[in-house]
Amino acid sequence: MDKTGAYIAKLLNAEDAVVVSCASAGIAQSVAAVIVRDNANLLVNLHSAPVNEPREIVLPRGHNVNFGAPVDTMVALGGGKVVEAGYANECSPQQLAASITPQTAAILYVKSHHCVQKSMLSVEQAAEVARRHNLPLIVDAAAEEDLTSYYQMGADLVIYSGAKAIEGPTSGLVIGRKQYVAWVKQQSGGIGRAMKGRQRGHSGADAGDRKLSDAGKNQRRADG
Q: Region Disordered: start and end of each range (predicted)?
C-alpha cells in the first residue's frame, strides 16, 4: 500500500496517495479519516461509540446527488452527517462558510456532471473557505481525468475512479496531503477492511502508469 501510494504520488507531484477498492469507498474512507484522525477507539467503533468529535460534512446542496448511489450514503458510511450549504441552484463562498459550525469535520466538493454547475462556487473558492476555517477540503473527482489540478488548487484529499480516470480496472485512487492520506490508509483497520480491493485491482491501477506519468509531466511543465 505504502510503496504503490508513494510511487503514484511521485508521478502526480502530490505528497501521498493510496489505492482503494473504488471511488465510492474513497469517499467513505476519506470522511472516516477526517472524523477519526488519531482516535484509536473511534477507528474500530465508528458507528457504535458515542462521538464527541466533529462529524458534519458540509457540501453545496447542488452537489448532494445520486451518482448510482447517494453521496450522503457514502458520507454516512464514513460516519459523517451531511450538512447542505446554499440552495439547489446556487452556493456561494459566503453560503458555504455560513454552514460551518464547531461540529464541522470537513468540506466536500463533488466535481461531476451529475451536479448543478451554474452559480456554484469553484474548487479554489471552496479551498479558500476551508483554509480560513482550518478545515480539510475533500474533492470527489471520480469521473474526472485531470489528476493534478484539484490537488494544486488546495484540496487536501482528491478521489478518483481508477476505471474512469486512469483507464484501469475497478479501483479508486485518493491523493492528497500526507497526514490526511495517512488517516485514509489507517481505515484499513476500520471501515476500509470491508472495502478491501483485490490484489489484481491494485496492480491494475498500477497499469495506468502511462496516464499517471503523463499527468505528472504536464503538471511539472505547467509549474516550470
A: 192-224
